[in-house]
Amino acid sequence: MVILVWQQDAKLPVGLGVLRLADLLIRAASNVAPGVSPGTWWGVTLGTAVMGALVLILVGWHSRRGHLRVYAAGLLGYAADGLLCLLLSDWQGLLFHGIALCGLCHGWAAFRQLALVEQSLMFQDSPGEPWR
Asked: Which of the pair, 78 or 53, is modelled with greater confidence?
C-alpha cells in the first residue's frame, strides 16, 4: 500500500490478500475523489497497514503463549486471506499461503500434542509426596 503513496503500479510478489484488497479499494477511491489531497490517502494507507500489523502481532503474541483458540482464529483468518488471493488471481500469494498453511497446521498439531502432554503430567503424582 505504500507503493500507492509513490504512485507506482508495482506489487510485491508475496503479500497478504487483505492488504492487496485495501490497496485496490484505496486506488479506486482516489480515482473517484481526485480532489482529495494525497496526504489523506497516505494516512488511510498507513492506518490500514498499521491496523493489519497490530492484528497480526496480537494473534502471534497470544498464539506463542499457547492460546489454541487464538491460534485457530489466526489459522482460519490466514486461510480466508488465501482465498482472497485466489479471488484476486494472485497465484504467487496463493502458493505462499498454501505452503505457510501447511506449516501452521503442523504447528497446530504440535500445540495440541503439547497441551495433552502437559495435561497428563499435571495429573501424575510426583514420587516425593509425603502421603505415599
From this structure: 78
- What is the number of structural domains in the chain? 1
- Expressed in angstroms, the distance from the first to the final Cα of the chain is 65
The residue to which cell 506449516 is assigned: 103
Q: Does some domain include residue 130?
A: no
Residue 131 lies in a domain: no
The closest of 8, 18, 41 to 90, measured between CA atoms, is 18
User: If we measure between CA atoms, which residue out of 60, 59, 62, 68 comes closest to residue 118?
Assistant: 68
Residue 85: inside a domain? yes
Average pLDDT, the chain: 79
pLDDT of residue 68: 87
Domain range for residue 49?
A: 2-121
Show the cell assigned to 91.
Answer: 497465484
Four-point Cα dihedral 97, 100, 106, 108, nearest 10: -70
Residue with cell 495440541: 112
Percent of the chain with pLDDT over 70: 82
* 128 in any annotated domain: no
CA dist 103 and 2 (Å) reads: 29
For residue 65, the one-letter residue type is R
